[in-house]
Amino acid sequence: MADVMPSTRQASITPIDGGITAATGFRSAALHCGIKAKADALDLAVLAVDTFASMAGIFTTNLAQAAPVLVSKQHLEATHGIGCAIVVNSGCANACTGQQGLADAKRMAEEVARALGCPAEQVLVASTGVIGVALPMDRLVSGIREACSSLAHGKGSDAARAIMTTDPFPKEHAVRVTTPRGAFSIGAMAKGSGMIEPKMATMLGFIATDAQVSPALLHRALVESARDTFNAITVDGECSTNDTLFAMASGTSGVTIDEELYPALVDGLLSVSEPLALGIVRGGEGATKVIAVSVYDARTADDARQVARTIANSPLVKTAVHGADPNWGRIVAAAGRSGVTFDVQRMTVRIGGILLFENGLPHDESAPKAAEILQRDTVDIEVSLGGGDASATIWGCDLSAEYVRINGEYRT
Amino acid sequence: MADVMPSTRQASITPIDGGITAATGFRSAALHCGIKAKADALDLAVLAVDTFASMAGIFTTNLAQAAPVLVSKQHLEATHGIGCAIVVNSGCANACTGQQGLADAKRMAEEVARALGCPAEQVLVASTGVIGVALPMDRLVSGIREACSSLAHGKGSDAARAIMTTDPFPKEHAVRVTTPRGAFSIGAMAKGSGMIEPKMATMLGFIATDAQVSPALLHRALVESARDTFNAITVDGECSTNDTLFAMASGTSGVTIDEELYPALVDGLLSVSEPLALGIVRGGEGATKVIAVSVYDARTADDARQVARTIANSPLVKTAVHGADPNWGRIVAAAGRSGVTFDVQRMTVRIGGILLFENGLPHDESAPKAAEILQRDTVDIEVSLGGGDASATIWGCDLSAEYVRINGEYRT
Question: ipTM beyond 0.85?
Fold first, then answer.
């Protein structure tokens, strides 16, 4: 047994530059077309494949889905996951915009398709920004035509800025995955939960790899890697109309992903997704600290996730962390109302490794030490449910008066 | 059909003075025994029945249940709902206190029982305050003995103050219910969600009536009336270790509640419970506005409640109301992620009666008028799901920077 290494160990992963266009076979363009008021604010990006790519997408589970979400789902289905480009705008979510919104989202795909010479169904669409407002199609169509004529390699960082709304910083990451059968690259970018003007945490994420992988396997790897990254974060428990995560695989590295190399692909996706997901949390509205809630010794991973998510979303836990209060009682109470059944007498609660609750009783003598740890900008909350061997981690952030200020301002 | 009035219409209900001791057959005492630091702060109350009473209780659904909750459940079960007194302290929740906490809660009941000459199982116990701290039993036992020797009629208002923690105002209400078969009274008091020192929204509610009613029927009426009052409010979606609602019926009015008069009892309970429940919301931490979320045209009442609760607990909706922003998009998105299935195209959203979203499209021309209405201190949000005839209302409050300040302060 000892000489059979898991195939994941056969891959070495190293960070590289280049963001979303780090992998070969992809070009991008980003510009200001006039959706955002500020004259130099990039608000449109096009990502194009040199030939064509396997495509996969994960979308918001909200019943209220924006037009670009509905159109992209249709396109992925119609093409069985073969595509040539993605077009993204920021500044307007094209959500709650009725039939006109659907027509506008389709038009965005059509304009890209016309410029690139591919079927419109091979173009995916994403939008982020204010909802209930129609896209300024004249400006957008001109912008798309201009962008498609200026596509270039190595310009991923501009695209990462063009998808931002009120994100405090751009989020991009790329890695080189070296396997015994060759190396491939994965580039990624994301935007997060700035909600002042966009009003909702329209999380968008984009991943581009030059691995050769079928649409079905790409989708499976995307779902698997998102579970513990983009789907394991929360800023305020809200779920938007536009949340979208796309992956594209150009195949130009010549490395074919089969079942043997599948773990290497997943590891590579995890490697680009985790820093972007954490970046979304760290850039969450009013956030001053990242909270990593890990739940251990649960009966199932779903149980662990549910308890971790309830703790990470608890307003009382979030405000306690904000105030550096080692308030284990709020953590116990949040776990207790999570809907998961466990024995509170066997539960333990640690903050920053400091044991604060065990056998149904507090260890308040350790509270001052935990309070010190809570001054850090990343806080670990560890909960054992004492009845199983499953675990999960959810990343959240604290709740500050700044969150209220940002979201309580009357929209202009 | 027209000449058969529902029996509920046969009862007329009028407010009366007297709070929890408004009904005949009940005495109370309240004093400062020394749990709260402030010398004149009442922190102990005893409610006693002149003879004995039917008793019923509803408790927190949190897995982490405080000692007084566990002991009161045992006592209700052991006596099949016959009791003689309730003892309540504020300032210490006796939660997460292990075996010592259970012994202390039992001791509280035993001391009352010894003073009143009844079995300890006939005494129910409630506590509210800081968790993870043991009760100061010496002071508490002295206080219980003193309280039991000074029980008197007509002192309900002192009891309503003694159960407060950081509530901004005491909450009591009483009514006289007149039926064709005689009149009975119902008095009630509650404390709400001040969490600075107590750390959790330990909602406690107490109802005392002189109607003659079996424990089983009293329990049924309590559950039914709580569903749309105490169980239809939310301050921050948290659920505490100590939440308790008790009802006692002395029978001294001579009016016997049977199936015919049952609706009159429920109406009476609703009449005292609704103002107390709304008082808890209005006194919620940092709350500046009450938000009444009504969901109509749902397939089931449970669906309507779930959508209403998701909207009322949404941080984005709560901050929008705080900022008087008629942000219908956040309401649509919260409903869409509630887990209830409905057709967004048939949904309508109104704020203060102003239609803002219909047929999947906004009515932003009405936003300024809605923004004016949002300046009021009670805000109605009305949502139609457009597919059924069930409805429900949940009362919540806005989210302010003051909430963060209150709950982010390090406990001293």
Answer: no
Boundary of a domain, candidates A244, A261, A282: A282
CA–CA dist B299, B305 (Å, integer) = 11
- Annotated catalytic residues of B are 202
CA distance B98 to B338: 36
Could you tell me if residue A215 is inside a domain?
yes
B261 and B376 share one domain: no
Separation in Å, CA of B62 to nearest CA in chain A: 5
In chain A, the residue whose alpha carbon lies closest to the alpha carbon of B359 is: A98
Q: Which of B325, B407, B411 to mutate to test the interface with A (most CBs of A within 10 A)?
A: B407
Q: State whether B239 and B378 are in the same domain.
A: no
Domain end marker among A282, A306, A327: A282
Tokens matching residue A196: 């002042």
Asked whether residue A338 is assigned to any structural domain, the reply reads yes
How many cross-chain Cβ pairs, A to B, lie less than 8 Å apart?
184
- How many separate domains does chain A show? 2
What residues in A contact B407, CB-CB < 8 Å? Answer: 315-316, 319-320, 323
Nearest to B238 among A62, A315, A360 (CB): A315
Judge if B333 and B213 occupy the same domain.
no
Compare all CA atoms of chain A with the CA of B201 and give the residue at the minimum distance.
A316
Least CA distance to A371: which residue of chain B? Answer: B410
Q: Do A385 and A265 share a domain, yes or no?
A: no
Domain range for residue B152?
7-282
Statement to judge: residues B53 and B74 lie in one domain? yes
Residues B65 and B108 in one domain: yes
List chain A residues with CB under 8 Å of B64. 332-333, 335-336, 344
Which residues on chain B are in Cβ contact (under 8 Å) with A409? 323, 325
Read off the pLDDT of residues A264-316 as tens digits, 9 standing for 90 and up.
999 999 999 999 999 988 888 888 999 999 999 999 999 999 999 999 999 88
Note whether B316 contacts A407, CB cutoff 8 Å.
Answer: yes
Residues of chain A contacting residue B403, judged by C-beta atoms under 8 Å apart: 315, 319, 404
CB contact under 8 A, A333 and B359: no
Give the CATH number, domain containing residue B252: 3.60.70.12
* Residue from B144, B273, B256, B122 nearest B207 by CA: B273
Contact between B351 and B374 under an 8 Å Cβ cutoff? The reply is yes
**pLDDT (tens digit per residue) in B268-319:** 999 999 999 999 888 888 889 999 999 999 999 999 999 999 999 998 899 9
CA B214-B88-B276 angle, to 5 degrees, is 70
Which residues are A348's β-sheet partners? Answer: A384
A183-196 confidence digits (pLDDT tens): 999 999 999 865 43
The reported pTM is: 0.86
Classify residue B339 by burial, with Cβ atoms within 10 Å: 0-12, 13-18, 19+: exposed
Same domain, A270 and A353: no
State whether A334 and B362 contact (CB < 8 Å): no
Non-local CB neighbours of B211 within 8 Å, separated by 6+ positions: B23, B177, B184, B186, B249, B251, B253, B255, B256, B257, B265, B268
Is there a single domain that holds both residue A330 and residue A267?
Answer: no
Within a domain: residue A231?
yes
